Amino acid sequence: MKFKYSARTKAGEKQAGFVEAANKEAAINILRGNELFILSMEEAERRRWFGSLFNFFYRVKRSDLMIFTRQFATMLEAKVPLSEALRNLHNQTRNAALREVILTITNDVESGIALSQSLERHPEVFSDFYINLVRSAEITGRVEEVMGFLADFLEREYLLVSKVRNAMIYPSLVLGLFVVVAGILVGVVFPQLGPLFEDANTELPLITQILLSTGTFMAKWWLAIIIIVAVIIAALVDYFRTQEGRLVFDEVSIRLPIIGDLFRKMHVARFAEASSILIKGGVPVAQAMEISGHTVGNLVYREALREASNGVREGELLSQVLAKHADYFPPLVSQMVAVGETTGQLDEMFRRIAGFFSREVNSVVDNLVELIQPVLMIFIGTLVGLLFASILLPIYNLAQAF
Fold first, then answer.
1. CA geometry: angle at 312 spanning 308 and 317, to 5°?
2. Do 239 and 245 touch, CB atoms closer than 8 A?
3. Domain encompassing residue 75
4. Fewer CB within 10 A of the end CB, N or C, for the chain?
């Protein structure tokens, strides 16, 4: 989202412009991080659909950010100066959107702005987790080490998300193709066979009657059906973009049978991995929970982790707070966190939790990949059999009549 703001610098100079952020609170944090005193802020005019389409193609992909972080970490570990490393990365990067972002960051760093503050100006590329970890590294003087942690984290996250996405491509394509073929049969072929069966005055099976009625309705009202479906889809998309809609969608996604369990394990793995890196990087536990909530990508988990953060600030043990949300965090998580709190190795416990649930996710995905193909073949085969039976049975009865 883009926000129009008016602010004053420390010197008292008035400054106005636009800032992009996920929400108004994030936009305020960005401006305050740049030592600006906000006078007013309002949401700018929403982008038109073609602007959103342009941004979809002109964007920084997850893989581009992963490669940039790994190269950046390698250069810093080799003791290449920060500005020189950014210049080299700008020359090597092929993604036009990322090249522009790197150039802006380079200019900011060379003008004396901290790296984390410059990253904060690009929330569409760098997450809160990324920015806060770099900020804590600047305080502790471990920027090259933290960039290495970030590179490892992004690579693991990319592999995990890619594996889940790739597992869903094949069934999605097969189902989509079947829906198209079935739509053509029901909407085009069946209405042409209807008069033939009526003239023959043969008794039709129930499935044939249903499909003929559906096909006739689709052939007569196809334009209205397309418009209604398009309106419903647009309304649903618009609703799920709202805070309430996203919360409902995220809640439903983790309640689904089989798939919900996969999503829960994936969210816990991402949360634990982020928490391990943040705590090891010197970020306080309460703040680490809040930041980790933004890396999970699920509003239900973000809210639960925000409550955990508040509970820790009020003096509760993190393990006790997580135990209250057993629907989202399995008992194993709170038990291992309790061990980490007792031994003073909380970051190590989170690392082990992340490893355990990552293996669980890989196992579930592998099993789904093996099971989904035969199940899909049986399901689609049954539907195809019903479609052809609805055509062949009346034709067989018609042949018997002569």
1. 95
2. yes
3. 55-156
4. C
Statement to judge: residues 342 and 384 lie in one domain = yes
CA pseudo-torsion sign 202, 206, 209, 211: negative
Does residue 122 sit in the same domain as residue 68? yes
| Model-wide pTM > 0.70 | no
10/132 same-domain check: no
For residue 352, CA distances in Å to 130, 217, 357 come to 21, 58, 9
User: Do 4 and 44 meet the contact criterion of CB atoms below 8 Å apart?
Assistant: yes
Interhelix angle 243-253/299-313, rounded to 10 degrees, is 100
- Same domain for 190 and 106, yes or no, is no
* Per-residue model confidence as pLDDT tens digits over 1-25: 667 777 777 666 666 666 766 667 7
Structure tokens, 111 = 């003008």
Q: At what angle do helices 206-240 and 243-253 cross, to 10 degrees?
A: 130
Q: Where are the alpha helices (H) located in 141-205, listed in sequence order? A: 143-184, 190-200
Residues 7 and 69 in one domain: no
